Amino acid sequence: MPEAAAASALVARDGQALRLAAVGVAAHRQGLSAGMTLADARARCPDLATAPHDPVADSRELDRLAGAMIAFTPLVALDPCDGLVLDVTGCAHLLGGEDELVAGVLAAAGYTVRHALAAHAAAARALARHGTGHDVRALPVAALELDERALSGLRRAGLKTLGDLAARPMAGLAARFGEAAVMRLRAILGEAGSPITPLRLAEPIRLETRFPEPLARTDDALDVIEELLTRAARIMEERQLGGRRFRVVLHRSDNVRPRLVVETGQPVRDPAAVMRLLRERIDTLSDPLDPGYGFDAITLAVLGAEHLPSRQIGLESGKEDAEDSIAALVDTLGVRLGEERVSRLVPCDRHLPEKAQGLVPAAQARPAPWPAGGETPPRPLLLLDPPQPVDVIAGVPDSPPQRFRWQGRLHDVCLAEGPERIGAEWWRKRGGHIPGNAGDTRDYYRIEDGKGRRYWIFRSGLFGETPGPRWYLHGLFP
Question: Boundaries of each DNA polymerase Y-family little finger domain copy (predicted)?
Answer without folding.
Answer: 208-310
